[in-house]
Amino acid sequence: MNVDEVAFKKGHRYITVISDRDGRALALTDDRGKESLAGYLRTLTDGQLQAIKTLSMDMNAGYIRAARIHLPCAVDKIAFDRFHVAKQLGEVVDKTRQNEHPRLPVESRRQAKGTRFLWQYSDKWMTESRQEKLMWLREQMQQTSQCWTLKELAKNIWDRPWSTERRNDWLQWISLASQCDVPMMKNAAKTIKKRLYGILNAMHHRVSNGNAEALNSKIRLLRIKARGYRNRERFKLGVMFHYGKLNMAF
Which residues form the domain of 55? Predict the structure, then answer.
């Protein structure tokens, strides 16, 4: 099962979308807090709760609390989506770059302008000229380079086949990140250490929120086509009608 959020309207008004592994909408609940997921889980029977093998999500603290209260053996079932973890580390790299760029010498600052995209990818996917440019940037921007290296190391761990050694891999990564000169990366390391159980579950069971993200994209498109929904309940009904895969046989 997957749980994710989608904006109902501008201004941080959200709907929680609960879906199955095939991307079928199971339920939509208001907001994106603890009760958004807890309310749905309380509607399930003991047998239905036991049948949930994994619950894929981002690191939303409310969702985590709800699952740990209402889902049996939640610590073995909660799986933190790979791409949300990658996004968090990518944001650390980008914010560090933004902080470090103004401190460069004038000429280096000019040459580094417009190179944000180079920090977003692995160098093995770049052309030779871009690899050289990134290498130069890493020499100029030491803190950003540290964060980029840690981001790439984390990606490498995710890419490895599952074994119990992955726990040690992550613990080594956490140790390295905790020694980083950048406070934001140290904070990211603390978060990953705290949530390591869910990262390992995601790797072990090979689950992600990919289908949930695809469903959210469809929901956003539905909202655009409808030119917005004034009524939250109509919005939820519209989503369930189109993407709930309801049995329409009468």
Answer: 2-81+208-243
Give me the residues of the chain with pLDDT under 50, please: 250
Number of domains in the chain: 2
Distance (Å, whole) CA 18 – CA 37: 8
> Which DSSP letter does residue 31 get?
S
The closest alpha carbon to 152, from 89, 208, 88, belongs to 89
Q: List phi, psi (to 5°) of 62.
A: -65, -45
Residues 68 and 113 in one domain: no
For the entire predicted model, the pTM comes to 0.89
CB 66, CB 113: distance < 8 Å: no
Which residue in this structure is represented by tokens 């160098």?
123
What's the half-sphere exposure (Cβ side, CA atoms, 13 Å) at 194? 11
pLDDT in tens, 124-143: 788 999 999 999 999 999 99
